[in-house]
Amino acid sequence: MSVSLAESRPVLEADPSPDQILQIGMGFFASKTLLSAVELGVFTILADGPQTGEALEQALRLHPRATYDFLDGLVALGLLGRRGDGAEARYTNTPSTARFLDRGSPHYVGGILEMANARLYPFWADLTEALRTGKPQTEIKHNGKPVFEELYAEPARLEQFMDAMAGIGVLNFEAFAGKFDFSPFKSHVDIGGATGLLASKVQARHPHLSSASFDLPVVRPIAERHIKAAGLEGRVAAGEIDFFADEFPKADLITMGMILHDWNLANKKMLIAKAYRALPEGGAFVAIENIIDDARRENVFGLMMSLNMLIEFGEAFDFTGADFTAWCLEAGFSRCEILPLGGPASAAIAWK
Amino acid sequence: MSVSLAESRPVLEADPSPDQILQIGMGFFASKTLLSAVELGVFTILADGPQTGEALEQALRLHPRATYDFLDGLVALGLLGRRGDGAEARYTNTPSTARFLDRGSPHYVGGILEMANARLYPFWADLTEALRTGKPQTEIKHNGKPVFEELYAEPARLEQFMDAMAGIGVLNFEAFAGKFDFSPFKSHVDIGGATGLLASKVQARHPHLSSASFDLPVVRPIAERHIKAAGLEGRVAAGEIDFFADEFPKADLITMGMILHDWNLANKKMLIAKAYRALPEGGAFVAIENIIDDARRENVFGLMMSLNMLIEFGEAFDFTGADFTAWCLEAGFSRCEILPLGGPASAAIAWK
Hints:
The structure is a homodimer.
Chain A (H helix, E strand, L loop, with lengths): L18 H7 L1 H14 L1 H4 L5 E2 H8 L3 H13 L4 E3 L6 E3 L2 H6 L9 H15 L2 H7 L5 H5 L3 H6 L2 H25 L7 E5 L5 H9 L4 E6 L4 H10 L6 E5 L12 E5 L7 H14 L5 E6 L10 H14 L7 H11 L3 E6 L5 E6 L1
Helix pairs in contact in A: 2-7, 4-5, 7-11, 11-12
């Protein structure tokens, strides 16, 4: 299903159409329509069964002017189904929205879209300023507080942020747990582990490992709750670390999921050096990220995510496999490898 | 070229991927990247020839943190070319961006993207409020003035708006001039004609017609300048009308391009009735718009544009061919027809 402006306009070499340009440039229409639908809980309400437009208007408290343009727009985007046409038609989830956008689904990925709706969409309005200044365009512009400091000050918002990250990370962590060879390792520590998701996904498939997820002290009770909910109590430990102040705990395998891209080059190198020091010979450090292709030509989402790091943090940036390899060899690692995880994500692996 | 999050993740019926959802939901990243590129004039600078990243950084006054993520992001989106990799690489326009996004090109469509960047992107941040209230989310929220009133108060901004509309309209007007049978008509009047573009495109191909473009008095000098620049002085007249206060001038063929969707139902019907009264038997009224398919399932851009009318005006809305037909038959027209123009646009034709 494409957000197509045009199926029928012929594309000639001598007289190309601007449809691709307009499709991308006006793509925020479709994007924000979906973000508002997630915010309003359309897909969660439809988990109870098909609904008429009128019933949805009531349940979502929509204005009558807006109801059908909103719902039929979602149908045309392939994000809702509709049985019948006209006033008696009933709207339904698609298999995909039922699985991924119903808040009651264990596969809910809407957290990242809720965050995009509340924060990133409006902050990206200042992209041009970010491109000109190299400075973040988030809450910090208004109240001077770095985003992580603010997040970590309020456990409820912190957990919301972590759920958002987990929703988008889970498929990558599952792919890593399925594709990587864990047999050489006895112990696994995930640094910056948030809810313990990466350590839990690995432990679930590789119970021979001793597993731990480390993050700031405020995160520990959140991680313990999630680990328990996953039925992995006693199998995944929740540890405390301030990865700026503390050395990493020793382990055969050290992972970081979507952490390195949050920091500038000096901090990236500092974290890689700490991983190196904590590993034995033959140990491995793995960063799971939207690793950009070396030629910086293919991984749209990785490059867009790096611009998002500019918006969020200024100096922080996403990187290529070649960048990762150069930093790790400089830190003393003996060789590196990039393991694609499907979609824009890869595991960047450095062997000591 | 797709804004793809994932080529390689397998899609299984039993275990679908959320890539389509994430691609649409995070699509504002790509959208705003292009809008900022148009704002900064990337494509206009590259009209003079390929440039290194460093040269573009200087010319566009980019911060070094941002330069390569921005430019390589545009490469990955298919919106720039790049000869070579690394620091010596030179960025180029694509055939499509050279034609449509260089401000010096006669085919420039960036006006609509400039307007989207400056106005629509930030206003769409309030889509949820629009869905709940049915109220516009534009300048009127902040200063109480309707957008058209404000635009028409300042000729420079008015002309900028008209250029934006012309950029996106020109292909539709050319398609209409090429596909519609003008042989039964001797006179053509375009109502709400702005720069005179629709009347000019028709006159250029059908010189047997007497042609005129009518709009508010403030628009007349702008239209006369554009008509002269198109070499059609003396062949397309620029007339004055307030289509709320005045009857339409009599003509065999009356057109309105992207006008009806700007108004609520009562005003749409008022305008259709005025067209009817101004036509002879056998005359035709034509509305060129992003006519939505009758089932409201296919024309994504038409439905999104209708949500944009909600954001811009509140009550205004886009409509289906069936809607248009019902209103025109009610006004006395004898039959209607929808002529697809390529892309999301059609000509809706009503015969008296």
